[in-house]
Specification:
mainly beta; four-stranded antiparallel sheet; 2 helices; 14 strands
Length: 146
């Protein structure tokens, strides 16, 4: 993944998340507020419309799987037996983040896996589970100054 442009607000830096691909489904533009990478937040949270668009893409690409009841705040859960989950890619202005399955689907008990992305009432955050096995470099130098 290349260098991604960011925008600084008063308390954090955000990058522009253009779209999200789940399997062969790609969301439309995910909003204008950006997304932050936060190593201190465990889960990934998406604000609207990104959450609803990505959730619909997950559901459209997993129609062949046996759904399980929502639990622990996770709305998209499946029986683990024989489950193969679709790929997930975050598309930014200047690069893509092609995620390993364990970074966005996780076991919530012995028989159920859930999409470990939750709805945010305000801002979108890439949490530390989704960042696993990536080297995230926080560079405050403005790309225009290089």
């Amino acid at each position: 993944m290349g260098s991604i442009q960011y925008e600084q607000t008063s308390t954090y830096y955000s990058v522009n998340l253009e779209s999200i691909s789940i399997g062969v489904a790609t969301t439309a533009r995910t909003g204008s507020s950006g997304i932050i990478f936060d190593s201190g937040t465990t889960l990934t949270f998406l604000a609207e419309p990104a959450y609803t668009l990505a959730k619909a893409a997950v559901l459209s690409q997993t129609a062949n799987l046996t759904m399980a009841p929502s639990r622990d705040g996770y709305e998209v859960c499946f029986q683990m037996s024989g489950a193969v989950f679709p790929s997930m890619v975050l598309h930014f202005d200047d690069g893509d983040m092609d995620l390993p399955t364990k970074n966005y689907f996780g076991a919530v008990d012995d028989t159920v896996n859930s999409w470990i992305v939750q709805k945010s009432p305000s801002l979108s955050i890439v949490g530390n589970i989704m960042q696993m096995n990536y080297h995230i470099r926080y560079d405050e130098v403005d790309a225009n100054e290089r």
